[in-house]
Structure formats: structure tokens, C-alpha cells
Amino acid sequence: MLFNSFEFFLFLPVVFCLYWFVFNRSLKWQNTLIVAASYFFYGWWSYEFLGLLCLSTVLDYCYGFGVASANRKRARLFLWLSVINNAGILAIFKYYDFFAVQFQHAFASIGIHTTPLLLNVALPVGISFYTFHGMSYVFDIYRKRQAPVNSIVDYAAFVGFFPLLVAGPIERANHLLPQIQHTRKFSYTQAADGCRLILWGMFKKVVIADNLSGIVDLAFNNYGTSSGLTLVAALIFFGFQIYCDFSGYSDIAIGTAKLFGFELLSNFKFPYFSRDISEYWRRWHLSLTSWFKDYLYIPLGGSRNGKLKAVRNTFIVFLVSGFWHGANWTFIIWGGIHACAFLPLLLLNRNRKYVNDVVAYDRRLPSLKELWQMLSTFSFVTFAWIFFRSDSLSAAIGYAKRIVTSFYHNPLQSLSLGEYKAFFYILIVVLADWHFRRNERQLKIHKILLFIMSIIVIYFMLYNDADNNFIYFTF
Amino acid sequence: MKRFLLKFARYAVAISLGYIVLIFSYSFLTRALKLNPYSARGKNVFVVGNSHSQCAIKDTLDIVNFAMGGESVFFSAIKTREILKANPKAIICIEFYPLSIKSAYINLADHRLPKHYRNYMYYMTAEEHLFLLRNNPWKTARVFLSPNFFSVFNKTGGALTANPKAKRNNSIVSERRKPGAEKTWDDKTEMQNFYALLDLIEAHPTNLFVLTRMPESRQLKFETTPKYLDCLNQLKQKPNVCQIDYSHIDFPDSDFADAEHMNDKGQEKVTKLFVMDIEKIRASKGF
Questions:
Q1: Is the preceding peptide bond at A116 cis, omega within 30 degrees of 0?
Q2: pLDDT for A185-202, tens place per residue?
Q3: What's the pLDDT tens digit per position in A112-165?
Q4: Residue A166 contacts by C-beta under 8 Å, 6 or more apart in sequence?
Q5: Chain A residues interacting with chain B (CB cutoff of 8 angstroms)
């Protein structure tokens, strides 16, 4: 079920009413309802893969008890079992075909021709997210940050909580599980904030991202015949399309969870206002970034064992993070490009310069220096999107080459009306984000603007005929 | 909770009312701006139909091409009615090719519905709205609530909508072969489109109707069915109806942009022929 579908608009009020009016007497029943609703939500898209979700949930639930054992050897064994189990699910469904083809190419290059057995299975939606939830739970128990959960219903609610089941934010066991295990009370302020977040998320997805996607697809599919300026414009549009698509999803997820009395982790904190690439990664998909930091970078030694190891670990994290997005060299290169940009900051010890504050926190406008920093970071990130969006490495290189070799000098003639419209959409997002930038969770929107936004969202939901999936569903 | 629910309900009602007001305001605006001004500007010959006509005929001093890719007979009839309201002396050239009836239903029920329904929704009678609603309730309701606010006027005649990937006479790529089209096949509904056209012709005995058939793929010629010939004969019996058929002319492949649609060169040729044929018909019929 998609958040931007009409089924969801029927599903949400029904679950909300059952949750607060019918099952409100017992926490156990409320959690059971969450599990049932989440499985229904997931099964609506693909009931075939529901079994995989259940299997992953049951196995990690059982490993949790083993990892909690006082015997560290035994605990380590179960930890590895969990990692192998979750990584195995990912390897089979997400990466098997990719590796099979790579081996085929490698053998072919030395003259051995093979025909690999390909699975050609559809990627189960949300597989990268719920396996990471499971691993987070087991890791946290191993590190004694979290006790194993006795009730499988509570654990299933943590792994499968429908707002974050298919595209995050990737929650931590020690953050969400305590909320699941304690009685929730309805709060008017929390619910109203949730509704505003849902509306703003919908606006970003339905109005901005979906309208930009047509122009972006056209440019990336026909880059060989488009002008360089059109390709640059399409690249900027893609930067905003993916931001509005994914942050829109996260906003809807966080807002929906608020309606049920939960507070989820933030996933985006206005990444395009970042002043350097390290700040960007503290603001873009931060639930994934912090997951990799906690469960990969730090176990590898982090930055404690000298600069060389810190550089190695940084590269590993960025490359794995790129590969997490999909089984394609383009994602690995994308991760590598970001690692390269991060490297100078790491070596000069400037990677923690902008940790907490947002740009121009106590001012209306940024200084010229900040503006330059933001623009240069944005330009770099936008350039890297070429690799993220292209279907293959050759297409990405062709796209970049075309920008340089055929850049028209008459911008007014090169851009179409649709592209001017797209810039207008982007302006709306930039202005709104600048206005909200101090707190991404509490959006202060005037009543009349809320009203207009609601009407625009309804209109575009009805107007767009195609089912527009969220981009991160495929990761 | 009570406060939240009350506020939410109030908000939902306000939005629904606001939305309805917006759509009704737009409906009044669009009727004044869309089809009528073009129809009243001294033109006499109006071409309606699908992409075959759209790609084959250019606008001239006397001819306006209102054809649009994927347009079914159902929507052509609505468009014709509006043109005749604005220009009672108009000569209507309406595309009627072997798959007119068949594609009418497929297009209407499937992928083309939003595009055409959005263009003509404010000209349609309640009965016509209900006709669509019966055949495709979800899509019809959805489109009804989301008119095309961004398009004041939708004349696309003469524009090329050909699919450059489809080679000449490659019958696989064609609008009648859209996946799932056969599933929605319904004899009764398709004939309703034909009767709509028949009614229209009978309601305007003083106007000349020219049934056109444009150059097309060889494959399409083989698909001419007895049902089509029967419908064509019924229409041709009317005193104010005649036919222009270019399907028998063997245009070279270099005149086509794809399997079934003319390119600029082909368009020039067909337009010349068309102007001459219209003149002949007008002279012989006294229009």
C-alpha cells in the first residue's frame, strides 16, 4: 500500500479509530493491532513476501535470547547467525543476480564462458529496512543496550510498524521498543503535528517529486540528444525529486507514527542547506548514516586507531552505504565519490565542524560565505546524483560528457515551459525548508496555507494517473 | 481526542467545500475559453478524429484540424456538437476507420480516458457523464474531480504524435494493442459510440459530414470487419454524409513517421488531396 494512494486514506482512519477507541484498554491488544495492520499494509502490496518478513522477524526474535546469554562465545555465535541470516536474505534477493553476472564477466575476460543461473526475482519491498531493524535489535542486545523482548508481538510491532516498514526511517531497538512496551496516551499537540507533517510530506511527494519525475526521466532516457543545459537542469530536478520523494515519505511516516503516539527518529534535516559534505551526511538519510556509523564504522575501529584506519573505515562505510541502495556499480561509484569528498575534511580534522547548529540559526538570511558553502556542497551532491540515477556506468559517463560537450549558451531557448514550472516547484521547497529549518518536526504553517496545500495535494493525487512509487521502495 | 476529531472533521468539510467551489468556478471559465472561440473564427471545415487525422492534415485558410491522438468516436461526437453550436454552417470531417468503434471503447475505458475526458468534461451532458461512469467508475470519478487547470485550450491539430520507435507496418506497436485492451472489450458499449455519431448526424440535417479514413498500415487494412462495413453503409445512406478514403492509396513508406502516422512530407501530400476532395464534395453537394 502506498502512502499516496486512496487505499491508505481509508486504511489510516480505520486503524486510528480501532487503535484509540476499540483496542485502547490494553497495551497488548494495541500492539497486536499494530502488527495485524502492518502485515495487512505490507501484504496489500505483496502477500507472497509476507512470509519472508515473518521468517526474518521470528529468527531475529529467537537470536535475541541467544545473544543475551552470559556466555560471550555463545552470544557471539548468535550474533553472527543473525548477521548471516539478515545479510543472507539481502544477498539472495538483492545481490545474487548482480554477483552472478559479475562473475560471468570476470570469467569471460579470462576466456572461460559460463551461463550463470539467475534468480530474476522481484525485490521484496522494504527488505533493506526490516533486515536492518532486525540487526539493530540483535546488535543492541549484544552491546547490552537493550534487553531481549519477551513478547514476540512487541518485537513484531518494532520490525513491522507500518509507517516505517517499507522505506524507513531505520529505527533503533533502544529507541522504538521502549515506546512499544509502554502505554501510549493520545496527545492533541502530537496528533496535530503529525497531521501537518503528513500533509507537508504529501505535498512534497505528490506535487513536487511526481511533477519533477517526468522531466527527469525524459532527460536521463534521452541524454544523447539533449542539450547540456537541459541535462544540468534535469540533474538539479532529480536532486529535488529524490529529496522530496524520500523526505516526503519520511515526513508521512513520522507524522503517521505521531497519530499513534510514537516518536520516530528524524531522517532528514534540510540536507541542501549543508555547508560541507560531512554536514550533508548528518542531514541526509541520517537514520541510515547513523546506523552505519554505530554498527559498522565504530566496530571497525572508527577513528581511534590512526588516520589510515579512519580513512579505510570511512571508505568502507561509504562504499557499503552506496551498495546498500542497489546492486549496481553506479551506486558503489556514488558512494566512492562521496567518500573522496569526505576525505579532505577527515584528514584536516574539519569533519565535525558543523555538528549541531543549522545555517543562519539566529538570522533570517545566510552570510555570503555560508551561501557559497551551501551552493558548492549542493553542486557537488548534484553532480554525484548522475551516478545514482543512471542505469549503468556508461550511461552516467555519457550523461556527464554530454553536459560538457554540448552546453548551449542560450538558456532561454534551451529550457521548456515544463522546466520553468519545475524551477517554480523547487523554489517553493527551498523557501519552505528555509522557513522550517530550525525544527524539522514542528512545522509552523498558517491556517490558510494549510488549506491551500490540502486542496493542491488532493488535486494532484487525483490528477496524476500513474501510480507513482516512492523511489526508496526499490532499495 | 474529542477536540482533535472535531477540528479534523471541520477541516475535512471545509476542504471538500472549497474543492467543489473551485471545480465549479473552473467549469464556468473553461466553457467560455475552450472550444468556441476557435470554431467561430470564420473557418468552415473542421477535422475531428484520432492521431491518423491529426498527423495527416495541416491547418489551412479554411480548415482547422481538431483531431487528437487516441480520440474515440464518443469524444469526437461531443466535440462536433460544440463546434456546430458555435458555427452552425460547419462542415465536419470525422474520422471513421475500421477500428474506430473498437478503439473507441478501448480508449474510452482505458488509458486515454483521462486525457479526453478532461478536455470535454464541461461540454458533456449528464447522460454522457453517466455513460463513462458506468464503464469505468473509478477513473471517471477521479478525472471528474481533477480537471486540467493548466490547459486553457487544447487544440493540437497537425502536431505529430507518432511513435518514432515503431517502424512502418510494424503492427505490434499500435494503440489498439495496448496490454489488457481485449479484457475490456464489450460489443454493446462500442456500438453506443456509433449510435452517438448517428444521432448527431440525424440531429443536424443541414450540415455536411465527411467520414474520413486516412492512410494507414497494411495490417490495418486487413482488419476491416463486416461490422465496420455495415456501420459505414448505415451512415452513408444519410443524405448529408459522404466519405473520403485514403486507405487505398499506396503512399510510400518515406511518407510515414511510424507504422500508421504520416510525417511532414506525407502530411503535405494528404493535405493537398484533402483540400481538393473537400472542394469537390462541397461543389457536388451544394455546401
A1: no
A2: 999 999 999 999 999 999
A3: 877 877 777 777 888 888 899 999 999 999 988 888 999 999 999 999 999 988
A4: A42, A45, A125, A126, A129, A470, A473
A5: 20, 186, 188, 191-192, 195, 451, 454-455, 458-460, 462-463, 465
DSSP state of B70: T
- Chain B residue whose CA is closest to A17: B5
ipTM above 0.90, yes or no: no
For residue B147, the chain A residue with the least C-alpha distance is A463
Whole-number average pLDDT of chain A:
87
Query: Is A459 in contact with B18 (Cβ distance < 8 A)?
Result: no
Overall pTM surpassing 0.90 (yes/no): no
Q: Angle at CA A200, nearest 5°, toward A198 and A201?
A: 60
**Residue A309 buriedness (CB in 10 A; 0-12 / 13-18 / 19+):** middle
Q: Which of residues 149-168 of B touch A (CB under 8 A)?
A: 149
Residues with Cβ < 8 Å from B247, sequence gap 6 or more? B97, B213, B214, B215, B216, B220, B221
Beta pairing, strands B91-95 & B241-245: unpaired
Could you say which of B7, B14, B148 has the minimum Cβ distance to residue A451? B14
Residue whose grid cell is 531475529 = A60
What is the rounded CA–CA span in Å between residue A287 and residue A267?
5
Please state the φ and ψ torsions of residue A99, each to the nearest 5 degrees. -65, -40
- Integer Cα distance of A397 and B176 in angstroms: 38
Strand pairing category for B45-48 and B63-65: parallel
How far apart CA B88 and CA A135 sit, in angstroms, is 75
Sequence-distant (6+) residues with CB within 8 A of B157 are B47, B54, B57, B59, B64, B65, B66, B67, B68
